[in-house]
Amino acid sequence: MHWAPCTLFDAATFGTYLAAAAALVAAPGPGQALVMARTLQGGLRAGLLTSVGLNLGTLLHTVAAALGLSALLLASATAFTVVKLVGAVYLVVLGARMLLATLRERPAVSPEGPESGAPRIVRSRLLLHGALTGVLNPKVALFFLAFLPQFVRPERGAVFVQFMILGLVLATLGVTGDSLVAVIAARTGRRMVATAWRERLTGTVLVALGVRLALIQR
What we know:
Layout: H1 5-8, H2 11-26, H3 30-42, H4 44-67, H5 70-75, H6 77-104, H7 114-117, H8 123-135, H9 138-147, H10 159-189, H11 195-215
Helix pairs in contact: 2-10, 3-4, 3-10, 3-11, 4-8, 4-9, 4-10, 6-11
């Protein structure tokens, strides 16, 4: 059986979702801060890969919401706390390692931008770090559980497919918005921030995101 968005969603519902998703993507948040920091640290490619990684996390949360797994985080305070703390520790350790690295060595300042002076980061690691940052945030899972179902119409059938279409739309908008942030950061900040300070900025952002995640409440 083949499904199309026009048969699963009415125009008013899908239009409302697009407007709401665009507003959510445009609102400043920790994801944009991470993309900006990674761009200043490693260049435009690093920012773009981080953006893709973050939104891979979005897709995973979409699948979890569609399968009902996110309900576990809503129902269990223990599950919420465990996932939250794992994500927080991951971010803090990652940021702390980066900050410590800047103390051990002093990279040369390059006027040509991150690509020539900053250590190159393995692409797969950027994707993985971005995805883990998104996945290990239980607040995102709860958001998906509360937000996406408002636009799902069970009477139209293919509920799982509806969830996935909505998630793909949000992930696409997310990649587009975060990529724009990366382009702006690469063009405006690349000649102003020394390599060591880029590393420190990125590490500080990661630690701050970890602390923020540890402090959030259900």
